[in-house]
């Protein structure tokens, strides 16, 4: 396993210098340049001596190239972590680039040897790769590759965050192994075809399997996080509702306590009188417009004095859209005509119904008609004329339908008609 060529050992001093310059520049050192490179060079040299002693003492165990290479990489990683004290991820990438440069440089040196032997298998097997010229070629290639990586890091990707590039680790490892196999087995094309194909298939399966399990675990973590956030939100809403219910319960308890404390002072007759008064006030409120309520209450008294049944059904809003004077004038003329027409009729009644559909207001007044007045045209003609003019003012219409015992007046108004009237 050891080489008899003396330059094999001297060559490592050159390699240690290249490695020290690479790692000292690639990693983030915390010491001054004058003392740091010397310490790192001595640490790498001591590491190489320890590896040499271990390889010599346990020659049978380290006879496998894979074990020897893996142990060397681990020892180099530990040395860099102890000396440079950079992050674990940055140190790992530095070691990966280190191994990649070594493998590529060795591969290129072997290709040069193959070209020198005319790509003849027998001639290549008889030639010795571990010669002074071979070492010098490999050193030059390593210096070139390490320098290229440092240039790329400084000029192209100076601020790259290696912590976020963990996904490159398996890719670099696979390519390093692939180049390693190609470099040593290039001339054994037939023997390596099956091995390389199998290696490719196994590598692809491993990468796909790792990606599958990684994605599945990420999806599970995302689902669990969303479920936890949803449960937390639900708990907050339930807690808020409970606090609100608790506050309402406290208010109810205070009200109930106050009622119980004053129950002995209550006068039943006064309560009933107040209840009847509240009921009369509630019945006098026909709609949401105060002037219309007053108008209808006034006509209610007039109908009661004439013994005429008067009913009102309003399912509309008059808060906006109409002029108060116009609306009161229209309703007053309708009810006045109905009152005069219903006098003297048997089972006299007047029914006023107002409904709303979107912006349209429909006013329908139905009444019985009895004896005719001395001047009916003058009485009802003026009222109808006013009603028709007001309906047209709000872009509506008015019509009357007279039957044998009843007369029905229907007025259609547009709440937006007041805006149109103002613009005109």
Fraction of residues in β-strands:
5-15%
The quaternary state of the protein chains shown equals single chain
Total number of distinct structural domains:
2
Main beta sheet strand tally, sense and closure: 5 strands, mixed
Distance between the termini: 110 Å
| Helix coverage percent | 55-70%
Organism: Holdemania massiliensis
Protein name: GHKL domain-containing protein
Keywords: Membrane, Transmembrane, Transmembrane helix
Report on the structure:
69% of the residues lie in helices and 9% in strands. By secondary structure, it is an alpha+beta fold. The longest helix has 74 residues, at 189-262. It has 2 domains: 7-187, no CATH class; 287-423, Histidine kinase-like ATPase, C-terminal domain (Heat Shock Protein 90, 2-Layer Sandwich), CATH 3.30.565. It has helices at residues 7-26, 33-57, 65-83, 88-116, 121-126, 132-156, 168-185, 189-262, 268-284, 290-305, 324-342, 376-393, 417-423; strands at 309-315, 349-357, 360-368, 397-402, 406-414. The radius of gyration is 51 Å and the shape is rod-shaped. The N and C termini lie far apart (110 Å). It contains 13 helices and 5 strands. The chain has a 5-stranded mixed beta sheet with strand order 1-2-3-5-4. It comes from Holdemania massiliensis. This is GHKL domain-containing protein. The chain crosses the membrane at residues 6-28, 40-59, 65-84, 91-115, 135-156, 168-190, 196-215. Keywords: Membrane, Transmembrane, Transmembrane helix.
């Amino acid at each position: 396993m050891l080489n008899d060529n003396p330059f094999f050992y001297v060559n490592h001093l050159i390699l240690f210098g290249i490695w020290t310059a690479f790692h000292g520049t690639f990693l983030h050192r915390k010491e001054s340049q004058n003392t740091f490179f010397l310490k790192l060079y001595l640490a790498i040299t001591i590491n190489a001596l320890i590896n040499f002693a271990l390889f010599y003492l346990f020659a049978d165990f380290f006879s496998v190239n894979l074990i020897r290479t893996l142990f060397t990489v681990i020892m180099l990683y530990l040395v860099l972590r102890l000396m440079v004290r950079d992050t674990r991820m940055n140190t790992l990438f530095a070691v990966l680039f280190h191994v990649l440069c070594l493998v590529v440089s060795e591969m290129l040196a072997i290709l040069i040897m193959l070209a020198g032997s005319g790509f003849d298998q027998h001639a290549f097997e008889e030639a010795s790769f571990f010669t002074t010229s071979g070492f010098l070629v490999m050193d030059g290639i390593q210096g070139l590759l390490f320098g290229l990586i440092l240039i790329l890091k400084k000029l192209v990707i100076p601020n790259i965050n290696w912590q976020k590039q963990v996904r490159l680790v398996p890719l670099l490892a696979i390519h390093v192994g692939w180049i390693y196999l190609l470099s040593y087995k290039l001339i054994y094309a037939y023997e390596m075809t099956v091995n390389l194909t199998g290696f490719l298939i196994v590598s692809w399966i491993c990468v796909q399997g790792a990606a599958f399990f990684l994605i599945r675990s990420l999806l599970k973590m995302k689902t669990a996080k969303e479920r936890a956030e949803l449960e937390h939100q639900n708990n907050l809403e339930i807690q808020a509702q409970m606090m609100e219910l608790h506050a309402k319960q406290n208010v109810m308890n205070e009200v109930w306590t106050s009622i119980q404390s004053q129950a002995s002072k209550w006068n039943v007759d006064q309560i009933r009188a107040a209840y009847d008064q509240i009921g009369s006030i509630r019945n006098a409120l026909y709609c949401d417009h105060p002037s219309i309520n007053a108008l209808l209450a006034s006509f209610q008294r007039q109908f009661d004095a004439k013994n005429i049944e008067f009913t009102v059904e309003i399912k509309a809003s008059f808060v906006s859209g109409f002029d108060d004077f116009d609306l009161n004038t229209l309703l007053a003329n309708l009810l006045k005509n109905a009152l005069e027409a219903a006098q003297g009729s048997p089972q006299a009644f007047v029914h006023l119904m107002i409904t709303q559909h979107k912006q349209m207001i429909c006013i329908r007044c139905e009444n019985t008609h009895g004896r005719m007045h001395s001047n009916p045209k003058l009485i009802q003609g003026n009222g109808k004329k006013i009603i028709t003019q007001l309906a047209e003012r709000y872009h509506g219409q008015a019509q009357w339908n007279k039957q044998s015992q009843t007369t029905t007046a229907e007025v259609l108004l547009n709440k937006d008609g007041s805006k149109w009237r103002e613009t005109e």
